[in-house]
Amino acid sequence: MNHASLFQSHELAQARILEPEHLLLPQGPVSGHAVLIEEGRFSDIGTVEEIASRHPGLPRLSLPGHLLMPGFVDAHHHVTQSYGKSLVYGEPSEIFRRVWVPLESTLNARHLYASSKLSALEALRGGFTTVCDAGTRSSEDLDAIVQATTDVGLRCVLGLICNDKHSAVLLDAEPIVARAQAHLQQWEHHALISPSLAISIPEAASDAMLHRIYSMSEEAGRVFQTHANEHLVAVERSLNAHGRRPIEHLAHIGALGSASLLAHATLVTPSEVRLLADLNAAVSYNPVASAWKGNAVAPAEAMRVQGIRLGMGTDGTRSDAFRMMDYGEAAQRFAFGMMVGDSSCGAGWTWLDMATRGGAEVVGLGTQTGQIRVGAQADFLVLDLQVPEMTPSWDLPWELVRIAARDQIRAVVVQGKLRLWEGQPVDWDPLPLLEEVRELARHAVAQSDIRKLHAPSTEHLARRAAQEKALA
């Protein structure tokens, strides 16, 4: 069925009351309900009859065959790495040392704007209305990132990297701390940007800096980000240097607590899981990154049961929220569920909740977004359910995790404003950006001291052809 005649983009943008066939509320999907949007927020929710009687005369739009659901939250992203994600396929661990540090270090303000705008557009296309950026290694100011994400209309938790170690050299702490304080103050009241402080990995900062940046984040009510227990070699380096694993060391020096958002945490012992729970630290579970990089899989379901706060992140792999949830459930099943006969593995609602409400909570925006409730920001998706893959429907949360796809997203709305319609921006043309990125990326990669250990697919095919010819 062609749904183009059901409603148009201008109708959605102008309607104050939306009446979808299904509405995804915190308690699950419901039918026969409507929402009222005022000043960029959900101001009323109820049955269609209740909303109509309480607000007569307001513009209404019926959305038969559609689901209105919260926008997804990417709890761990790298928005300035969009130039190079195809460079890391097949690479072994710690690609940041060979690819990301060399590439990001060359990026100027123009690069930051273009790469971030590309990432922001892809995020919206994948159903994300919020991303949490872990920080760039570019020495440029972050204004270009703010401008890019704001121009696209994406909500962004913007990390500032505060490392004070460069190779074996310890840098002067005070300029770094001053910049961190300025960052927290500069974006404190921005409509779409929330500031965050970050240390790339614990070993990239002194213990004093780790403690200080964590404390600044906690005092400001902002999120402190770091990558922890992601790679075996990093765990071993921490043991050699401190006699403690990275998460243990963060706790020991007072840099782990309710303000912490740890990316990955794939290599964790039972005692570290307990430590994370006891200190109320949060984790971004990044299942696609585990699959693409070949890293271990974080025991997300076990963490959840132990009370650890969890969101889900792409780690800049592919900004597709449905693919992220599917990987998230499947990774738990393959890594942990199958060996013990767990056929549910958290059930579909777990991963759907983790990718929306849970993600918003761990990035510090739990009171603003991630749910459809009165007072929350109107960040939502309109999803077409009238597709063969989801017909018939018996358990919508499970189906959203395993079956739904981003091409079903009709509309993406952030802060009550329509940002994307059928995969395309409503107020700007993306084609010039794509052309610019192709040129800028070629130049940036050529100027970077990138060291790949895995040859491109075309080279592998050429080698195989040569071997077959030699054996003929």
UniProtKB/TrEMBL annotation:
<dbReference type="InterPro" id="IPR011059">
    <property type="entry name" value="Metal-dep_hydrolase_composite"/>
</dbReference>
<protein>
    <submittedName>
        <fullName>Amidohydrolase family protein</fullName>
    </submittedName>
</protein>
<dbReference type="Pfam" id="PF01979">
    <property type="entry name" value="Amidohydro_1"/>
</dbReference>
<keyword id="KW-0378">Hydrolase</keyword>
<dbReference type="InterPro" id="IPR032466">
    <property type="entry name" value="Metal_Hydrolase"/>
</dbReference>
<comment type="similarity">
    <text>Belongs to the metallo-dependent hydrolases superfamily. ATZ/TRZ family.</text>
</comment>
<dbReference type="InterPro" id="IPR006680">
    <property type="entry name" value="Amidohydro-rel"/>
</dbReference>
<feature type="domain" description="Amidohydrolase-related">
    <location>
        <begin position="68"/>
        <end position="418"/>
    </location>
</feature>
<dbReference type="InterPro" id="IPR050287">
    <property type="entry name" value="MTA/SAH_deaminase"/>
</dbReference>
